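This entry is listed below:
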Amino acid sequence: MSGKGNKMRIKLLPICFGILFCMNIPTMTYAVTETVSDKTLTDLRKRNSVAPSLPISVLQKLAWQPVNTNAKQTVILSHASLQLNQGNIQGAVAALALPANHGALKITLSSLIKDRQVYSPNVLVLDEQFRPAAFYPSHYFTYQQPSIMSADRLEGTLKLTPALGQQQIYMLIYTTHADLQTSTEMVDPAKAYAQGVGNAVPNIPNPIARHTDTGTLTLKVKSERDTGNILIGHSFTVSEPKTVTVGSTQLNTVPSQPSSITPETKPVLGDTEQYFNEAIKKAIRSGDIDKALKLLDEAERLGSPSARETFIKMVKNKE
């Protein structure tokens, strides 16, 4: 019996190593593949490439769920969740409020594939006044293969920098009529394993995940010192038409409420400069020098002439 047991263990070892190796294959990105014709796919993407126009009254009535930075959060979207059926938007949505006074934000949004079904997310980012500022259509969130720590999923990363003077910004996650007519092609585990070990890839069909109006989302939100992000909101009072940023491109939209405020010629508004100086003082008083440095960096990036002097004086007084 012991000899047979040893042979059995020997046979099982390659299988176990194969499974572990497959799970450690570097993540590869696959474009969303639909089961519709190329022309229909092009039409659907055109419809999804335009930021939705939602009345401020509708947005204000949504129950916005607060999100903390430096934390992972799971959002379950079901038929009992918040629903929004406006224009092309259909089904359950996630309405999230992000802190706007912690500096730049890096947000990794994942939609998990389960039982060959997945929620295909679109994201509209709004400033504190519910004005559209950034838009990420569903094809921005691409298929990612599973790893040891992650399942099959659609995933994308958003980098946002809230403008000064705001307490929070908003992120609306939704799916559309167009998304529900398409699907996502996954990668068969046998193919992934063959690619990883250099074997011939078997000629077998990949599984298809159907897009649904419910699903499971995960968000990883963290603060970062990155000044190259998309600016959310206005640091200055402006009367120009708002621009909605779509990924790395920009899409001009007509403002929902015309403004008659004259643009300010100063590099930084007085109240904004004072806000930063007070925040720097408060951070140094509490001993949080790292936060004070981040505030200084952001203030100077926006043209503050007094932030550095405030920082130096506070540090000297602290000594």
